[in-house]
Amino acid sequence: MVLTEELLINGDRTPAQSGEFTSLIDPATGEGWAKIAAGDAVDIDRAVQAADRIRQPWRQVNSRDRTRMLYRLAELIREHLESLAELESRNVGKPIRDARDEVNLAADCFEYYAGAINKVGGQTIPVAAAGTSLTFREPIGVCGLIAPWNFPIAITAWKLAPALAMGNTIVLKPASQTPLTALKLGELALAAGIPPGVLNIVTGSGSRAGEALVRHPLVRKISFTGSTEIGSHVMKLAADDIKRVTLELGGKSANLIFADADLEKAVPKAMWSVLGNAGQDCCARSRLLIERSIYDAFLEQLTQQFQTLKLGHPLDESTEIGSLISQNHRDRVAEYIQIGQVEGAKLLCGGYIPEGEHLRSGAYLQPAIFADVTPTMRIAQEEIFGPVVCAIPFDTEAEAIAIANQSFYGLSGSIWTRDISRALRVAKAIETGVLSINTGHSVHLEAPFGGVKRSGLGRELGLNVLDHYSEIKSVFIAE
Ligand code: NAP
Ligand code: MG
């Protein structure tokens, strides 16, 4: 199958003005399977103009109608669950069962923010003057959304649903490698009754389409998810005209295992909290800090579990670990296997390209555990973004906290202990935006998500994100 996909501007599928396309490679097979329009600054300008033209009419749509449109979009996503999941699975190389969960999460996200539309507004404030002080919550205007390739439909929904709920219009630039579900979402949005021009999608490279979006003077806000390096660049560009910016960036999160933890749960969760999405997860708990008295036993069990993992084709129902996003990325991850060994860490398992013809032609990597890692090694400091976990022993609670915080990043993390006082003490001491205690999972649609330090700026999800997609106008009426 060779798909050909064009841009979505003002409700129409349209070629890039340059007439150029780029090819998509199926990461699990190495074969070309789609051609995608390569949009650039000219196309971004067309899309932004369309979004700007409909800005006023869209904000005037009454709240009940807008609510219905977002609910309808959620319904349509569920009706297309299987085809969207298959598209996502093939495009990213992720197991089909995970892709289904992520498509469902996208639908849940539109439902959640549909429900918020007529419940979140302004305030009246008791000021010290004769009159009434009140605030209006207003849309920001045209928002530029820039998405990464690891959870394309889920992260797109995290941005799109609250942005639409607050009455903004959108130009979305998906990651070049994973534009397919975003384009389908754009078509479903039209089918849900969202007017043409409210959501425009320009596929194309980050350096051309992405950068043009960030520079465009009519764009009032950029919401970016991706690497810290590009995030920093985006923030600098956005500074020129004081665009609002939210950034969800990289991570190198710590998983702290104390000796009193429930190891039966902690071992498999330690595995999945780094191997989910083949480790291509900003929240991956890729630094595994283990109290020394249980260090050897823990790693022995973990190694056993790593060796039972089922790698396979993403569309195979029994696959647990799919392919990485591309051979280039796999090679980058494999380089860290070399780096770790040169640095003196001990490779307990994995780190090689698995056997089997169909696995060799895809971008697979056997999940790896490094033991005896020290906190300053590159493999303990840099985001590897692949199926690699680095185990570091610690002796005291204070040392565990110090190691956890010895990072430029601060996105996620876990604490495993049966001692509730310790759990709370450590949770308060760790510099991170999100944290889970006695589980590996801390992302919930209804709760705020985001990073501290170089992991980002602002929050997504929950009701908090609505503040990042609206402006507050303060109005005083004299008596
Ligand atoms: P990336 O290379 O930074 O790209 C992210 C997006 O930015 C892509 O759409 C990319 O387009 C675009 N882009 C690239 N250069 C740009 C520029 N100069 N101006 C504007 N846009 C530009 O990140 P990635 O490799 O796709 O994703 C992996 C990274 O994302 C990891 O660091 C991961 O931790 C982070 N991430 C963070 C979160 C979070 O919520 N904190 C979630 C998921 C991922 P192209 O695709 O064309 O390069
Ligand atoms: Mg990239």
Question: Tags for this entry?
Answer:
479 residues; alpha/beta; Aldehyde Dehydrogenase, Chain A, domain 2; 2 domains; seven-stranded mixed sheet; six-stranded mixed sheet; 21 strands; 39% helix; globular; binds NADP nicotinamide-adenine-dinucleotide phosphate; binds magnesium ion
Furnish the topology, listing elements before pairings.
Layout: E1 3-5, E2 7-9, E3 12-14, E4 21-25, E5 32-37, H1 41-53, H2 55-60, H3 63-79, H4 81-92, H5 96-116, E6 124-125, E7 131-139, E8 142-146, H6 152-165, E9 169-173, H7 180-191, E10 199-201, H8 206-215, E11 219-225, H9 228-239, E12 244-248, E13 254-257, H10 263-275, E14 287-291, H11 292-306, H12 327-343, E15 346-349, H13 357-360, E16 368-371, H14 378-381, E17 388-394, H15 397-405, E18 413-416, H16 420-429, E19 436-437, E20 456-457, E21 470-478
Parallel strand pairs: 1-5, 8-9, 8-11, 9-10, 11-12, 13-14, 13-18, 14-17, 16-17, 18-19
Antiparallel strand pairs: 2-3, 4-5, 6-7, 7-21, 12-20, 15-16
Helix pairs in contact: 1-8, 3-5, 3-7, 4-5, 5-6, 10-11
Bound molecules: NADP nicotinamide-adenine-dinucleotide phosphate and magnesium ion.
The site of NADP nicotinamide-adenine-dinucleotide phosphate (NAP) has 32 residues, from helix 8 and helix 9.
Description:
This protein has 479 residues and is an alpha/beta fold. It folds into 2 domains: 3-249 and 455-478, Aldehyde Dehydrogenase, Chain A, domain 1; 254-444, 3-Layer(aba) Sandwich (Aldehyde Dehydrogenase, Chain A, domain 2), CATH 3.40.309.10. It is 39% helix and 20% strand. It has 16 helices and 21 strands. The protein has a 7-stranded mixed sheet with strand order 15-16-17-14-13-18-19, with helices on both faces. Strands 10-9-8-11-12-20 form a 6-stranded mixed sheet, with helices on both faces. The radius of gyration is 23 Å and the shape is globular. NADP nicotinamide-adenine-dinucleotide phosphate is lined by residues 146-150, 155, 173, 175-177, 205-207, 210-211, 214, 225-227, 230, 233-234, 248-251, 282, 383, 385, 411, 451, 456.
